[in-house]
């Protein structure tokens, strides 16, 4: 074995087949807490087709997407066992910001497939690859040009957002 051809990979955790969605979320939950402190965070699922990325990130089934009434307040105990990272993170964010009027949450739903970016909240018949662009304001910020964003202010908004992305 040639040491020059060795690839070193690093990872934080290996989940077994017995791991639950709650186990997975517990490992990324500190990132969600960091967002509430003003830091950026990315949770990224990568892998071959059929390896469980969608299940890990979204996790829910259409029957679990019924939105509660508008009078509902966020409640972290509402997680269905199959809910993945996104619904759990959104509910945690809404729960933590519901009393903070200076904080807004907006969400986008995108997929990178074969090195092309797609907005999952647009009609699939009109869906075209989007472009990743650098913001030319002296920062190193990047933006996906034309990506839809939606405001989230309540648990029903979270559920409607997830259902919209799931249905399209």
Automatic annotation (TrEMBL):
Pfam families attached to this UniProt entry: Kinesin
GO MF entry, a single one: microtubule binding
BP GO terms, sorted: microtubule-based movement
InterPro entries associated with the record: Kinesin-like_fam, Kinesin_motor_dom, Kinesin_motor_dom_sf, P-loop_NTPase
Residues noted as binding ATP in the record, renumbered to the chain: 47-54
Domain Kinesin motor: 1-168
TM helices/strands, residue ranges: none
GO cellular component, one term: microtubule
Parts forming coiled coils: none
Entry keywords, A to Z: ATP-binding, Motor protein, Nucleotide-binding
PANTHER family noted in UniProt: KINESIN-RELATED (PTHR24115)
Protein family per UniProt: Belongs to the TRAFAC class myosin-kinesin ATPase superfamily. Kinesin family.
Name under which the protein is recorded: Kinesin motor domain-containing protein
Protein's organism: Aphanomyces astaci (Crayfish plague agent)
